[in-house]
Amino acid sequence: MSRLIVISNRVADLNKNVQSGGLAVALADSLRKRGGVWMGWDGETRADAGERPPSVKQIGDVTTVTIPLTREDYEEYYLGFANSVLWPLFHYRLDLVNFESAFLEGYRRVNKRFADVLVNYVEPDDIIWVHDYHLIPLATELRKRGCKNRIGYFLHIPFPPPDILSAVPDHKWLADSLLSYDLVGFQTQTDLGNFLRYAEEHVGIHPHPDGSLRFRNRMVRADAFPIGIDTDAFAAIAAQYADEVQIDAMRRSLLDRQQIIGVDRLDYSKGLPDRMKCFSRLLELYPEHMKRVSFLQIAPPTREDVDAYADIRQELESLSGAINGRFADFNWTPIRYIHRSVPRDKLAALYRVSRVGLVTPLRDGMNLVAKEYVAAQNPDDPGVLVLSKFAGAAEELTDALIVNPYDIDAMAEAVHQALMMPLEERRRRHAALFDRIKRRDALAWQRSFLSTLESLTATDADAA
User: Fold this and answer.
1) Long-range contacts: 119-123, Cβ < 8 Å, 24+?
2) Which end of the chain lies in a sparser environment, N or C, as judged by fewer CB atoms within 10 Å?
3) Active-site residue flag, 364
4) Active-site hit among 73, 191, 230, 364
5) CB–CB of 90/157 below 8 Å?
6) Per-residue pLDDT at 395
7) Is the pTM of this model over 0.90?
8) What is the pLDDT along the chain (464 residues), one digit of tens a residue?
9) Residue 156 annotated among the catalytic residues of the structure
10) What domains lie within the chain, and their CATH numbers?
């Protein structure tokens, strides 16, 4: 079995027995079985980053390799091109794209440095797996350095339609960079279709029925690989109620009150202001829910150095205050808004005691919160998932209540339906959803991608 080389913006702590997310679980499992290398940024910025050797640690058969960035790298590669150009662009938000030529130069510079370091750890038979939007050009840089290994790429966020992608300068270079991989993986059939349409309309490549494309005398395979979670482990965590969550649930039970929950990073792609407006509209349309239902929104901070994130934080604080000021009573707070991270065990318990999981991004690659909510439920008395049709998870989780996150009234109607749904229907929907996320968990995703990459013949890899 070939070793696995994983490259991502950050590296998980492999000393932890329990990883915090589906990606970390799946990659850690595969690396431990195969042996190999996991490389990424160490999270530090240093003036002498370019001259410092990488930090190398050995954990069993796995080597972790991390490097610092200069402050200039951080501002141009990470805050700049990755999160002020690619993130809004790939989430269909051209209005928020802030393109500067220095950002692209920094993005290319850091990817070249990653390649310079990585080639020292690659053996001829290794399989290389590159992750996410931070590292799109890495295969091109590795090929320039003589790397002939099979290289796969997985995009964790959406891939936009051709007309949106073509609005940004150097979009052709981005596409050419993706076509330097042997296998390009996407979360959904929609993302895959957008990529294949771009290749046909802007590169002049006609995809084969299996999603393969011939580019510069190379065969490149593209396909959808929906990522999952560690379903059984998360369900087990949720069943072990954190004490304070159990006490809060008992209090609400005595008062005959239900809880709606939303959990998202503080990001403009998540539709958080519209979600709060939806809850306000629910109380207007169905006043019987007054003092009977509360909404808990957990939104940990992220990318606080980007102006758009400070703006949305201010908007959410203003909205939650206005709604509470309008509807609250001395013993009932309609909205509880938490702007910090919550420990994973407590989060799982909070999912379990919430009658409705409100997951309504304006655009999302997959959204594992939806799957975590399903996994956490008590199958005898499960809650109901209300899910945006623009979340990648909506392609799989069709037994959720699927909504348009831009239609506030329709969202409020769906939340009302979820709150009033009979037990039998809740059980039926949950059983179907749980079966789907269990069959397509994090390990199934990892095995599917790697088996496809390994199935490429040497001729494909050399020609690709």
Assistant:
1) 119/145, 119/146, 119/147, 121/5, 121/37, 121/39, 121/63, 121/65, 122/5, 122/37, 122/147, 122/149, 123/3
2) N
3) yes
4) 364
5) yes
6) 97
7) yes
8) 889 999 999 998 877 644 455 567 678 878 988 999 999 999 999 999 988 899 999 999 999 999 999 999 999 999 999 999 999 999 999 999 999 999 999 999 999 999 999 999 999 999 999 999 999 999 999 999 999 999 999 999 999 999 999 999 999 999 999 999 999 999 999 999 999 999 999 999 999 888 899 998 889 999 999 999 999 999 999 988 766 676 677 766 666 789 999 999 999 999 999 999 999 999 999 999 999 999 999 999 876 666 667 788 889 999 999 999 999 998 899 999 999 989 888 899 999 999 999 999 999 999 999 999 999 999 999 999 999 999 999 999 999 999 999 999 999 999 999 999 999 999 999 999 999 999 999 999 999 999 999 998 644 544 44
9) yes
10) 4-228+443-463 (3.40.50.2000), 231-439 (3.40.50.2000)
